[in-house]
Amino acid sequence: MQSLGKIIILGGTGFIGSQLCAKLAPLCDKICVLTRNIEANKDLKLIPNLEIIRANVSDERTLNAMFSGSDIVINTIGILNESGIDNTFNNLHYELTKKISNAIKLNKVKRYLHISSLNADPRATSQYLITKGLAENYIRDNMDDFCNTTIFRPSIVFGEDDSFFNKFSIILKFLPVFPLACPDSKFMPIYVNELTDFMISTIRDNKTYGQKIDVTGPNEYTFRQLIDITLKALKIRRLIIPLNYTLSKLQAVIFQRLPGKLFTLDNFLSLQTDSSSNQGFKGKLSLEDIVPGYLNFSLKQKHIENLRKKSGRSE
Question: Which of 7, 205, 238, 249 is 20 to 30 A from 258 in CA distance terms?
């Protein structure tokens, strides 16, 4: 099989990006992961043909230099909540896409994979979905003339290191009563292994060039059902109080002012549109096949670590 050449991955130390790194390494000559924190994922350092480069991806001159000699660029960067002046939806979703586009054009890179989001739309009400939609439109209107692009639009992405089920498992473990905002919002979660396998399968598939592809799992769930699946996996019982529209919005207004921003007004606005689709790629593995295994494993590992700390052991 012909090598894929040199691949640049933005967001390569993250949940989806690290999966892509591990799977693409045997298929290419070299992978360059651009990140501000080279210690964010130490496991990547074990991949022999992968280089982790400390870089400010928001600096267009840096991107221009790093993309030199590259065959494929993959952008997995995205945030659910804003933090600080620089880490805004507009900067990391839209403005970054424009800078990537310019660097790709300058270096004549011929293949670009971009992770967006289901329901991304400049006409949406949440800034998360608006900026994702603006980025999609920019790619379609500007990049397709000089690069083969594919946009992937997943619903919730779940897996061993996800930020959804792992986060809620921690919250539910410590809260006997859980007020649940937007309990009827719908999702079609996709397993990260199926998402990344599909992305890789499209790299040389010219039928996917210039396409936006919805990526979902096989089943649709309400938010309440996702919480119930989490509780079942953890083998615990909690009192779940479903909140109506007004109380859900009030919770968002209050929670976004708290440290950690567990739930924001922009999250609330995003949840007003169901994250489901009847089109595009459908994974085969359901939550029930995967989630109980890794949530229970996580709890066992944490229990072992706590026992070691109490006994004064660090090995």
Answer: 238
| pTM tops 0.85, yes or no | yes
Tokens for 140, please give them.
Answer: 């379609």
**How many residues in the chain?**
315
**73: closest CA among 113, 16, 17?**
113
Domain boundaries, the chain: 6-162+188-216
Residues 6+ positions from 219 with CB-CB distance below 8 Å:
188, 286, 287
Q: How do strand 221-222 and strand 186-187 relate by DSSP bridges?
A: antiparallel
Q: How many Å apart are CA 226 and CA 154, to the nearest integer? A: 17
Structure tokens at 282: 């459908």
| Low-confidence residues in the chain, pLDDT < 70 | 1, 297-315
- Beta strands 177-180; 186-187: pairing state: unpaired
The answer to whether residues 133 and 158 touch, using CB atoms and an 8 Å cutoff, is no
Residue 298, H or E segment: helix 287-311
Contact 60, 91 (CB under 8 A): no
- pLDDT (0 to 100) of residue 310: 46
Query: What CATH number should be reported for the domain whose range is 6-162+188-216?
Result: 3.40.50.720
Q: What residue type is 25 in one-letter code?
A: A
Torsion angle, alpha carbons of 235, 239, 240, 245, to 10 = -170
Give 304's contacts (C-beta < 8 A, 6+ positions apart).
none
